[in-house]
Design goal:
The protein is mainly α. Helix content is 66%, strand content 0%.
């Protein structure tokens, strides 16, 4: 999560000249920014499952530790690919927009929504990591819960879905596939428990959902 500034700068660098000269100070599309309880079901289940599995000793032992042990049977060295692909979904929002694909929002709104969601992710992740102080599976480091890489990937995947999913459902599927891959790699590389990844996925989705809901009130 310390590198969240990366995707924000990428979005800013992709902006065409004169973006901030657009008139008006509100969202410029007809996107429905209302928030319904149905939208919170899946991410809430993910976060709730992560919390229960992580902080219930019997479940942690029977779930997290068993998955950790199984994923480390081949005694592989850690690769660092997820350090980079965690940004693929959010970067794709900007790249697809630059390539001319029709999105739900204009450039200014995309930057504001993406930047706001990234900041929210960073704040939530670090608050939980250093207040809960869960030990990582490789021991000695106490900032495991939730998975920041997974949060970053899923906040980007959810934004990708909201901007392009209706017109291009395959893009939404691809974004979530990449985000899921990031979570699995965090487990495979022994950087996080499975419960950290579940909670990170849910919190990433909720961060983007909250940002889209708040957007009209923040007068983007």
């Amino acid at each position: 999560m310390k590198h969240l500034i990366g995707p924000i700068l990428l979005l800013l660098c992709c902006l065409p000249t004169g973006i901030y000269a657009q008139k008006g100070d509100t969202l410029t599309c007809h996107y429905d920014h209302s928030f319904t309880w149905q939208q919170s079901v899946s991410p809430s289940v993910l976060v709730g499952s992560g919390i229960i599995l992580s902080f219930t000793p019997e479940l942690h032992k029977g779930f997290d530790i068993k998955i950790r042990d199984w994923s480390q049977l081949d005694r592989h060295d850690r690769n660092e690919i997820e350090d980079y692909i965690q940004y693929a979904p959010i970067a794709s929002v900007a790249v697809l927009k630059a390539c001319g694909l029709k999105s739900k929002h204009n450039w200014r709104d995309i930057v504001n929504l993406g930047g706001g969601a990234a900041i929210l992710c960073f704040a939530i992740s670090n608050s939980l990591k250093y207040s809960l102080a869960v030990e990582r599976p490789y021991s000695g480091v106490y900032n495991s819960f939730p998975s920041g890489h997974t949060m970053t990937a899923f906040f980007g995947a959810e934004m990708l879905r909201r901007e392009y999913g209706e017109e291009y459902p395959g893009i939404a599927v691809a974004g979530y596939a990449v985000a899921t891959g990031v979570g699995l790699l965090r487990i495979y590389n022994n950087r996080h428990w499975a419960s950290d990844v579940l909670a990170g996925a849910g919190l990433g989705i909720l961060s983007t959902s909250l940002m889209y809901w708040l957007a009209p009130y923040l007068r983007f």
